[in-house]
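Most newcomers find our protein records easier to grasp once they have seen one. Nothing more is needed to start thinking about how sequence determines fold. Here is such a record, shown just as it appears in the course material:
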Amino acid sequence: MAKQDWQKKAAEWLRGRNGSDELGICVSLVALILVIVNIFLNSFIISVIALVLIGYTFWRSASRNLEARENENGVFCEFLGPVRPWVRNPVQAFSEARAYRHFKCPECGQRVRVPRGKGKVRVRCPKCSTKFDARS
């Protein structure tokens, strides 16, 4: 019975909060790397930076200002750009890179993927229907 009360209170506290997002996960990973590096270097500055990053991650997760946290995460995801799939899931990104080539549409900038090994192909953009040649 006590376990259910605790779960209910935790669920109530988390309602309306941001939770973890890509920026929070990345900051947590950087803090973890700094903690591991600090094991070998034993530096006070590195430990303080890691502690501040962990605190920032918890603050972002507990924040009720969803719009501001969403804007921060959007700017971070835009900053990552084409590296984003490699950060999210490196194994899947590696298999995707081996199986497909990715091209940008010259008109609208939409990313289009083409199977590798097909030679010179005519690609049609799914967004604006522009056709262009590409070598896969």
